[in-house]
């Protein structure tokens, strides 16, 4: 799936991996986020922390009639208020994607896969 924009000079195609990478970078800059997690919980319900090159495994982008819907899977830091971290993460991802892609973001769903101490 790609996002297609048509301009007077031609068409622009943005891949799902590019959107996932942008969302992953934005989420990792949020306070209280240890890192991205895989959307598939590993054996024994342990969420695996993803490295920078694997952000697309922790982000799912769906195109709807109203705009893009982004699902982000994260691991939060121990001792922070999870609801506040999730709210700020949603705001940041929505802002960064709308500013960068000039595309409406319908929803940013954040799924907390685990809690860990930040090193």
Features:
single chain; 119 residues; 2 helices; alpha+beta; four-stranded mixed beta sheet; 6 strands
The rough form would be described as elongated
Number of strands: 6
Overall mean pLDDT stands at 83
Please give the alpha-carbon distance between the first and last residues.
36 Å
- What sequence of helices (H) and strands (E) makes up the elements? EEHEEEHE
Low-confidence stretches: none
Structural class: alpha+beta
Strand content: 35-45%
Radius of gyration: 15 Å
Helix content: 25-40%
> Largest sheet at a glance?
4 strands, mixed
- Per DSSP, the total helix count is 2
Description:
There is one protein chain. The protein has 119 residues and is an alpha+beta fold. Helices cover 28% and strands 36% of the residues. The strands form two sheets. Strands 3, 4, 5 and 6 form a four-stranded mixed sheet that branches. A hairpin with a 4-residue loop joins β4 (59-63) and β5 (68-77). α1 (16-28) crosses α2. The radius of gyration is 15 Å and the shape is elongated. The mean pLDDT is 83.
């Amino acid at each position: 799936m790609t996002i297609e924009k048509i301009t007077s000079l031609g068409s622009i195609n943005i891949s799902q991996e590019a959107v996932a990478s942008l969302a992953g970078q934005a989420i990792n800059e949020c306070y209280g986020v240890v890192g991205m997690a895989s959307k598939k919980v590993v054996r024994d319900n342990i969420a695996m922390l993803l490295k920078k090159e694997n952000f697309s495994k922790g982000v799912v982008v769906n195109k709807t009639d109203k705009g893009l819907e982004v699902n982000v899977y994260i691991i939060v830091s121990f001792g922070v208020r999870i609801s506040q971290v999730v709210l700020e993460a949603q705001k940041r991802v929505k802002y960064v994607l709308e500013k960068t892609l000039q595309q409406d973001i319908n929803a940013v769903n954040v799924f907390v896969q685990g809690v860990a101490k930040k090193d």
